[in-house]
Amino acid sequence: MSLALYRKYRPKSFREVVGQEHVVKSLQGGLVLDKTSHAYLFIGPRGTGKTTIARLLAKTLNCEKMTEGEPCNQCYVCQEFNEGRNLDLIEIDAASNRGIDEIRNLRESVRFGPTHTKHKIYIIDEVHQLTDAAFNALLKTLEEPPSHAVFILASTEPQKIPETISSRTQQFNFRNLTHNQILEKLTKIVKAEKLNIDDDALRIVALSGRGSLRDAESNLTKLISFGNKKIILADAQEMLGFIPFKSFYDFAGLLILGKRGEALDFVSSLYESGADLEEFSKSFIDYLRKILILNLNPATFVNFSGHNQEEVRMISSQAKVLSKDQIVRLIKVFMKAREDMRISPIQQLPLELAVIEYLES
Length: 361
Prior knowledge:
Layout: H1 5-8, H2 21-33, E1 39-43, H3 50-62, H4 76-82, E2 89-93, H5 100-110, E3 120-125, H6 132-143, E4 149-155, H7 163-166, E5 170-173, H8 179-193, H9 199-208, H10 213-223, H11 233-240, H12 245-256, H13 260-272, H14 277-296, H15 309-321, H16 324-340, H17 349-360
Parallel strand pairs: 1-4, 1-5, 2-3, 3-4
């Protein structure tokens, strides 16, 4: 079985990391000066490289020939890490190992030194899911860790981590990647894999990640099933369930013109076509936000990376005919509709009510 692209092209050195230069620079500075911490906390959105950089840090800390904060990827230890067979790297998923027993086992393991490396590294992913008792047990280890142990905690919800834990770590904040950063990485993968995919289709794949490189790479993996056939925009949209951009323009146009019946028919046709209405509402709100931005400052269209000229033209044309108050009211109405979809017994009903509320209020 071939590896998923996000695993196959996972960075093997810090210089290959995309979009988290501020984290990399700080970590490498500590490595070069030999001023590393016994505990790190990586926080940020999913799919932005927290676990990848945690593994790179673990490998570099144990590398036999580290140079300027980079692992050599040649020594025996680096090869072990690259092949996933180093016994001194222990990864724990707190989502499924969240109780006190698991952390007690970790505390027992920490007492013993590494097998043949300098450090024993513990990566605890989604650490915020630990129970209160487990956090208390972990705290005792973080307070008095043995010199050989290094803890790297990762979380998407840092507000759920007790301050007693976070205050004993060196904290790094990860950012969502930009569209251009994701697109650049995907372009390299496409060339390496010799995939036949046109630019618009690849742009859609990059957008589908919504700031997560891993999600975008996973979506690109889905398209490989097309084999040697050239992948065009329609293929990418169909495979990824991506709603065409013009749909948002058309729907907004019906609302602008006050065509209630046609707008309700539009929602009905979306549902009957099998479209994900929650995804549609989320993307439509994002579309309205861009209309608002252009309405307030027309010069900001240059910041709409990921959109071609025709899409920017669509946004701009509707930004000119709607007032700021109208756009704000549209956004509020459809945000409420998206929230109501989670409890509605009829999936399309909140969108239909949003259409009626906006046009009749």
